[in-house]
């Protein structure tokens, strides 16, 4: 074949076959990912109720040893125009991997719950964690650490050291649905009978594009509330429309 014919043939070949090869290259993984969403439920009739929730999450994962997470949740509800639910929770957490399985972490928890008479609860904790399962479909990790605790209610401010432990689990049920579960305990070291447990169970499914629907059961248990008239246990079923970014 003559030399002047080789280059046009080569260009045509690249346009026909090279384009499909380039299209199959995976897109770069973003360093920042997250979501925000909310839900609203209103009933009228014999009982008028309004329930609102707002959720936010942000993850910074540069695919190195460092991983940073931030989550926030706000729940508010009224019944017959009387406030019946008012709770805010924020978590900031940083993990540094020592190995593929083991990591150290530092985190700060903030909680405000009007009906548990918690004006604010702040608990910075640092410790060690281990990834028991870490696959594309299933992730299961546990961690424990020590730190401090400041809890303010209507009568006093409690200050003490704290012990924290918890676990998180997630499993992809399909390409569009994921099951999640989490459990976190925080103990007051001055009185180990004074502890707070938060449990969550949920399913998230994709609706369209970056829009998801999350249905979650939340259980907050305070073993020693500030007053005997305050119930120890609060549960909530939360439905949230989530937009990922």
How would you describe this structure in keywords?
single chain, mainly beta, Lipocalin, disordered N terminus
Descriptive report:
9% of the residues lie in helices and 69% in strands. It starts with a helix and ends with a strand. 15% of the residues are buried. It is mostly beta strands and 245 residues long. β1 (32-43) and β2 (49-60) form a beta hairpin. It has one helix spanning 3-23, and strands spanning 32-43, 49-60, 66-79, 82-97, 102-113, 118-134, 138-152, 157-172, 177-188, 191-208, 211-222, 233-244. Mean pLDDT is 89; it is low at 1-5. It contains one helix and twelve strands. It is flat, with a radius of gyration of 24 Å. The chain has a twelve-stranded antiparallel β-barrel.
Q: How many separate domains?
A: 1
Instruction: Determine the N-to-C terminus distance.
Output: 53 Å
Q: What can be said about the biggest beta sheet?
A: 12 strands, antiparallel, barrel
Shape descriptor reads flat
**Mean of residue pLDDT values:** 89
Strand fraction: over 45%
CATH superfamily: Autotransporter beta-domain
Q: Secondary-structure element sequence?
A: HEEEEEEEEEEEE
CATH class: Mainly Beta
Radius of gyration: 24 Å
In percent, how helical is the residue content? under 10%
Uncertain stretches of 5 or more adjacent residues: 1-5
- In DSSP terms (H or I, runs of 4 or more residues), the helix count works out at 1
Q: Looking across the biggest beta sheet, what order are the strands in?
A: 1-2-3-4-5-6-7-8-9-10-11-12
